[in-house]
Every structure is written in structure tokens, then in C-alpha cells.
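Researcher: Going back to the complex we discussed earlier. I've cleaned up the inputs and rechecked each line, so this should be the final set. Can you rerun the prediction on the complete assembly and write out the structure?
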Amino acid sequence: MPAELLTIGQVAARSGVAPSALRYYESLGLIASTRTAGDRRRYRRAVLRRVAVIRAAQRVGLSLEEIGEAFSIVEPEAAPTKEQWGRMSARWRPVIDQRIADLERVREDLTSCIGCGCLSLQTCRLYNPDDVLAADGSGSRRLFPDEPDHQEHLA
Amino acid sequence: MPAELLTIGQVAARSGVAPSALRYYESLGLIASTRTAGDRRRYRRAVLRRVAVIRAAQRVGLSLEEIGEAFSIVEPEAAPTKEQWGRMSARWRPVIDQRIADLERVREDLTSCIGCGCLSLQTCRLYNPDDVLAADGSGSRRLFPDEPDHQEHLA
DNA sequence: GGGAAACATCAAGTGAGCTTGAGGTCGGGG
DNA sequence: CCCCGACCTCAAGCTCACTTGATGTTTCCC
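Model: Rerun complete. Updated structure for the full complex:
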């Protein structure tokens, strides 16, 4: 327990992310570690920041792959420089803004539908939304995919 | 194509949700249908509203199971009454508000971290967040789970 | 009335993001 | 010196929300 490097257990405890998840992130190249002679992982403190950024980005709805792409501009294994950080957040900002706008619209629709008495009508946006998914392939769906437009409406 | 009842294909076209997904929702009890003599599904128009509500709730980050719970207060197979709708949206509003607040915080953290020069410091909220996950079992994680608090911080 | 859509069921597959388990290694305290 | 717990790898399992495919039935239209 010197000071400089953290064990996986310590990183887990301090970040709240399970060791298995940290190994998984590492397998994806999202974080990096050095190894001891006995093959144990040792993490630099900067990994805590990276993990925090990963969790924050997930909350925004980004996949680990997208996060990895954004990380490709910062050097692995170190804290981002101010400039790199700036580029990353510039990249994510519009995504966050969009997500917030989406949710605000859902909230608005939900609320206005109560007041407007549109429950049985077809003019309601919730009833007759203009953002709709088209079938587009296989596999699971992102929770908040970029929904392609689709024009087919009610009658 | 009389008028009253919709086929699964029509519901799919009008809601933008694939037929297979509609059958899946039905298997979970989220929507209901009657059957023709030949065992084909027939949906009442109200199902369009329900499907729209389901998609909206998913956008907010609710699982289909949670959506089903919320639906348990409205009669299956019919459009919600104004009162039921009110209860549902009252139930979801705080969740939406919370999600929006979370995202705004991430955005704020991202932005302020650029300006504040905290990149190498430990006072930064992103670096030293107070919302952290504890290990809690198996399986996949919700994209935006209710994160239990966890107090273990840096040093 | 005949053929092609559209629909039915059911089992199995998909992808993301992890966890769990088996089986073995490392390292610090008593 | 020995033991326990933390750690290692790798393969397999799991959840969620669907889709795909196989196989069979209905229905609409000409």
C-alpha cells in the first residue's frame, strides 16, 4: 500500500465500479494498467478520472464503443490535458443537449396531455408523434438510439 | 379494412414499432388484442396511444417492467381516463425531472471542468463524484439505473 | 378458386455490458 | 513457513429488448 499505484480492488472501492467491470473496460481499451512482477494490475490515480468520465458518458446514453472513440484523442493511461478535455466535452455537449431536449419534450407532452383534454383526440403529439422508429435490422437496441425519421402517421 | 379494429401491420406502420415488438409487448401484457376467427390479432385504436406512451417512457429510461407496473393502474385494452393518465404522469414526472437534472449536472461538470483548471485536482466533482455504484448482483445493467448511494471516496 | 401477402407460433439468436465460476497464483501477517 | 484473501485468466452465463427463421394458416384480390 505505498501510495503511487492503486490495486484493482482500491480502484473498485473508490470508483464504485466492480473489479470485473474494470477488467472489462480494460479489455476494451478504455483504461490501462501496468503489471507487477506477479502479474497484478496497478492503476495510476488518473484512472479514477477516466472511470468517472466513462460513467458520466454512459449516463448521457453513449455506448462504451462511442466512449472509446472519444477517448482515442486523449493519450491512454494519463489524465487528459485541458485541450483534449475541451475537445471531448465539445464532442459530447451536443449529445447531452439533445438528450435533455428529448426528455423535456416527453415531460412537456406528458403534462400538456393532462391539461389539454386531448386524451381522446388525434391531435396530441404523444398520440401522434413525429418521431418514430422504422425497423432497421437485428440485435438489441440502444436505449436512446438516434431515431431515424419516419413519416407515416395516423390516417 | 373496415375501420374499427387495426391489424398488427397497421399498428406497426402507424406507430413505427415492428410487429415482432408489438407481439413482444403483448406477451408482457403491455398491450392487448382480440382475435379474429382465424386467430389474427385485432387492435383497438387506443393501442396506438399505449404504444406511444411505452416508447416515451422508454426514452425516459424506464424498463418495460416498470412501464407495466405503471400501466397496472389503467385498464388494459382501453385508453386511460384523464384521471388514470394524471396518476401515471404524476408518477413519471419526478423520474423525468431527475433524469434531466442528472444530465444537466453532467453537462455542467463537463463544462466547468474546462474552465476551472481542475484537471489535475481532486476537488472536481467529476473526478470525485458523490454518486457511485456499489456491486449489487448479476446480469446486465440498466443504462440509467437508480444508483444507490455509496460513500467511499478518494483517500 | 388460386396464389401471394400477411399473419400465427415457437425456439433460438443478437448485442451490450457485465457477472459468475472454475481453477490457479501472489503476497503479506501470524 | 504456511495460510488466507486478493488477484489472475478464460469460458460461460445472464438480463433486456427485441429480431430472425422455420413452419404452418388466413385472407384478400383477381
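Model: Worth noting: Confidence is low (pLDDT under 50) at residues 130-155 of chain A.
Researcher: Good, that matches what I expected from the previous run.
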